Amino acid sequence: MTRRISIIARRRVHELFMQAMQPKPGDRILDIGASDDTGPDSNMLEQLYPHRQNLTCASLTDGKSILTAYPGVQHIQIAPGKPLPFADNAFDIVYSNAVLEHVGSSARQKEFLQELCRVAPRRFIAVPNRAFPIEPHTCLPFIHYFPQAWFRKWLRNTRYDFWSHEENLNYVAAADFRTMWPAAGLPTITGTGIGFGPWKSNLVIYQA
Questions:
Q1: 152 φ/ψ angles, rounded to the nearest 5 degrees
Q2: Whole-model pTM?
Q3: How far apart are CA 189 and CA 153, in angstroms?
Q4: What local confidence, expressed as pLDDT, does residue 2 receive?
Q5: HSE on the CB side for 61, CA within 13 Å?
Q6: In this predicted structure, what is the pLDDT of residue 1?
Q7: Is 116 in contact with 123 (CB distance < 8 Å)?
Q8: What is the pLDDT of residue 3?
Q9: DSSP character at residue 159
Q10: What's the rounded Cα separation, in Å, for the pair 208 and 19?
Q11: What is the distance between the alpha carbons of residues 136 and 144, in angstroms, rounded to a whole number?
Q12: 70 neighbors 44 (Cβ within 8 angstroms)
């Protein structure tokens, strides 16, 4: 059931990407944070995008499973906390889903956003929506509504300890994007995924 819900939510993120960004067949797209997990709820862009020959996946691994699962894509291995190995505006669109909340402190998140904005003039970024009542990493209800210091303290030394460390999970709210966005002009901020109204499972920030 959890995987089925995840598939629905991620498909809706993909649908919004196609609708909002309207990529052309020749657009060069960079997906930052593609996963070695090639299950049905992973790498929805690689699964569904019809022009894989123009899709470059960037991940922390050698990407062998990604290249095997999605013939036609290209893969680049990147290093955490390092500048992306691409020239300015090397791509037409940069895409990032469920990555920003895992890069560490707010300062690291801002640096990551700067890199995303540097490598492409059009950007699409999705993160979990903190307003959604179920915390997606632990499946616990409401616990993430509290200050993050409390959230981390309550998870520390439990089976969810991994998520209690800032370097592994640091939520980003819509207000945070408005203050840390590094590019000219404010992006569009909206919700998608499962749920309704402001309680959508995913928060999406894009500049088309």
A1: -70, -40
A2: 0.95
A3: 30
A4: 72
A5: 10
A6: 65
A7: yes
A8: 79
A9: T
A10: 10
A11: 10
A12: no
Find the helix or strand (DSSP H, E) in which 75 lies.
strand 74-77
How far is Cα 23 from Cα 14, in angstroms, rounded to an integer?
12
> Which candidate, 205, 40, 202, 204, places its Cα nearest to that of 128?
202
What pLDDT shows up at residue 165?
A: 97
> What is the distance between the terminal CA atoms of the chain, rounded to a whole angstrom?
34
CA 171/CA 169 separation, integer angstroms: 6
C-alpha dist (Å) from residue 109 to 19, 138, 171, 194: 26, 22, 10, 25
Cα 54 to chain center, whole Å?
19
Beta strand pairing call for 93-97 and 74-77: unpaired
Residue 143 structure tokens:
């616990």
- In one letter, which amino acid is 172? V
Residue 193 to residue 203: CA distance in whole angstroms: 8
Under 8 Å CB-to-CB from 144, ≥6 apart: which residues? 130, 135, 151, 171
Average pLDDT for consecutive 10-residue bins of the chain (208 residues)? 84 97 98 92 95 97 95 96 96 97 96 97 97 95 95 97 97 92 92 93 96
Longest Cα–Cα distance in the chain: 49
Q: What is the set of domains in the chain, with CATH numbers?
A: 2-130+171-207 (3.40.50.150), 134-168 (no CATH)
Q: How far is CA 123 from CA 37, 138, 183, 199, in A?
A: 24, 28, 10, 23
> What's the pLDDT at 5?
82
